[in-house]
Automatic annotation (TrEMBL):
This is Protein kinase domain-containing protein. One of its GO terms (molecular function) is ATP binding. SUPFAM superfamilies: Protein kinase-like (PK-like). Residues 77-312 form the Protein kinase domain. It holds the Pfam family PK_Tyr_Ser-Thr. Transmembrane segments: none annotated. Signal peptide: none annotated.
């Protein structure tokens, strides 16, 4: 795999399928998953496969996504096939899995931080452990652990301490979130950082994923000064309904209906708010967010969620 900016790609330490053997049939396989009925056929047939064959299928589908081997018209169907099969079978692609033998915890390091053996400068942080008690893995978590883009922080699965439940780990960056970074590095190109965020968000939306929590704490900066999007759902076992800062929330998400879910459109609202803050290095009092909300929706009264928020 090509390295993401800001870190080396960790060696998985596992025997992945021989690329010269797999790639010959890979394009033919994925080119046939070009419609909804073909996708459903692949998912259904996967239910009858043995564990080893399931692993090979997931590896092939994942490789086709990472290497752009799938024709453009097939990519959405290939991606959905991968996530559905992997979550149902509780299987992670080996090219997105680390060997626990490669992880070393140094004395004095926090318990969630590991070094990659032989790569002193490369560290990973344990984000969460996936519970194995459910019949299927959460599709959102499986999706994030199979994403491969230079502006999205990679998430790998790993079985720590000989456990049967996989943990999700991600590279640990020296720099903090994007707003802290630009305060400490005023010479940084803010346009480049914004373009990085846009590129990562576009990739997520192309794969029918909604971030749902795009604000500064979810955008980290690599050692090379490039912005990478992290995911809030991966880092916690339960999603807080107010986890997306009110100041970055689209109006429909802070209305009276608590059942409204984030969408790609609300992601774009959050992205615009984040761009404003990155570009102008604003503080929370620079933009009258509540006033803006009431001007856009004069017929609405401030909701209890807005009024109790410390953002205003």
């Amino acid at each position: 795999m090509a390295a993401h900016p800001g870190h080396e790609t960790p060696s998985t330490g596992l025997d992945t399928p021989n690329e010269s053997e797999v790639f010959a049939t890979l394009c033919h396989l994925v080119s046939r998953i070009d419609a909804e009925d073909r996708m459903q056929e692949v998912i259904k047939k996967a239910q009858d496969l043995e564990r080893g064959d399931l692993q090979l299928l997931v590896d092939c589908l994942s490789m086709s996504i990472d290497k752009n081997a799938a024709p453009l018209k097939c990519r959405s169907y290939v991606w959905r096939s991968l996530i559905k099969i992997a979550s149902t079978a509780k299987v992670f692609a080996q090219n997105h899995t680390l060997d626990s033998a490669c992880l070393v915890r140094e004395a004095g390091s926090p318990p969630s931080i590991y070094n990659i053996s032989g790569k002193a400068s490369l560290r990973v942080k344990v984000l969460r452990k996936i519970e194995n008690s459910q019949p299927h893995y959460n599709e959102s978590l499986v999706s994030w652990s199979h994403i491969y883009h230079s502006n999205v922080i990679p998430v790998y699965s790993v079985f720590l301490d000989n456990g049967i439940n996989p943990s999700l780990v991600s590279p640990d960056f020296t720099y903090g979130n994007i707003c802290n970074y630009i305060q400490e590095h005023p010479e940084a190109s803010r346009i480049l950082l914004v373009c990085d965020i846009a590129s990562g968000l576009s990739y997520l939306h192309e794969h029918n994923l909604v971030h749902g929590g795009l604000y500064p704490d979810c955008v980290l900066v690599s050692d090379e000064g490039r912005a990478l999007i992290a995911n809030v759902d991966v880092t916690s076992n339960s999603r807080d309904s107010d986890s997306l800062s009110i100041r970055y929330s689209a109006p429909e998400l802070v209305g009276e209906d608590d059942g409204v879910q984030p969408t790609q459109a609300s992601d774009m609202w959050s992205f615009a708010c984040l761009c404003y803050e990155v570009h102008f290095e604003s503080t929370r009092n620079c933009v009258p967010w509540l006033t803006l909300y009431l001007r856009l929706y004069p017929e609405r009264s401030p909701t209890s969620k807005l009024l109790r928020s410390s953002e205003f």
